[in-house]
User: Fold this.
Amino acid sequence: MLATEHPAKKAKKTKQKQKKKKKKKSAPALDAQGRVAGTSDIGLDFSFQTHHGLLHGPSPRWSARLEADCRTCFLQRSFWLPSNAAPRCALEEIARRVFEQHTRGVAYDHRCSGAEWWTQVRGPEERHAPARSGQTTRAHPF
Assistant:
């Protein structure tokens, strides 16, 4: 008979390893505006912007693809698309478009730049309920 480690003990070890990894992470240095150091002076426009047409895709199935991707990626966490990576889904294609619009004409380091993105899935009864972001309330038009 093979001796195996008890699942609870194995889970505890895994949790301890994850804690050690978290401790190694450090927050980036911030500048006087509260942004990651070195980003305030490279020519990015930090004002509010609207980019029409980003949610409209090349085919009639685009909406269904977006909805399916949102449901798949709704894990209550965010994702990172490196600036030099190819999008793997419709949501990353949108993140790429937003990133490109914000960085057009700006020199940036491709090795450590990219777009953070996340999803929020709501049921039909919540369709017109406002989404909350910090102190601001916004309602999505869909």
Notes: Confidence is low (pLDDT under 50) at residues 133-142.
